[in-house]
Design goal:
A four-stranded parallel β-sheet has the order 2-1-3-4. It has four helices and four strands. It is an alpha/beta fold and 156 residues long. α1 crosses α4. The chain has a single domain, classed as 3-Layer(aba) Sandwich (Rossmann fold). 36% of the residues are buried.
Length: 156
């Protein structure tokens, strides 16, 4: 499906602290992509409630090729989804500098959120937690990310 890219893609992963268990399941797929030379690795942003996200921007998000956001009610409740960091990622996405992919972990209403305006994974925005076989959900997400990587590497 995906061939080895010209240069491994850099990945920025945002998630809510409450979703750490699902994030750890997902990291197995990222590790395989790294072993296959598709990604150079990933940096993480653990999002916690109570942080004022209005001005916080991790400088690493300004240079990454691919931003993955693990979406859940906990992430939305943190205020991160309307903060400066994610807004900057979407601005970079609009100019083709990065790609933002929200990954739906739990049922959540994204109406009015910038996260709801782009292609969501897994297919049909069916949350990972609702799949009877979560491995199938992660595999579906893996395929979507690999397609995105193919698109990113065509610009190199």
């Amino acid at each position: 499906m995906t061939t080895k890219s010209k240069r491994p893609v850099s990945v920025y992963l945002s998630y809510a602290q409450k979703d750490k268990d699902l994030k750890e399941e997902f990291e197995d797929y990222l590790a395989i992509m790294q072993q296959n030379g598709l990604i150079s690795g990933w940096v993480e942003r653990q999002v916690q409630r109570g942080t004022d996200w209005s001005q916080v921007i991790d400088p690493r998000i300004l240079t990454t090729d691919l931003v993955l956001v693990l979406v859940s009610p906990a992430l939305l409740a943190s205020g991160y989804s309307s903060g400066a960091e994610l807004q900057k990622a979407f601005e970079r996405s609009e100019t083709g500098e990065t790609r933002v992919i929200p990954i739906i972990l739990h049922y959540v209403n994204l109406i009015g959120y910038v996260l709801g305006r782009v292609q969501l994974l897994p297919r049909d925005a069916q949350p990972v937690s609702s799949w009877s076989n979560r491995s199938e959900a992660w595999e579906n997400i893996d395929r979507g990310i690999r397609r995105a990587i193919d698109g990113i590497t065509k610009h190199y």
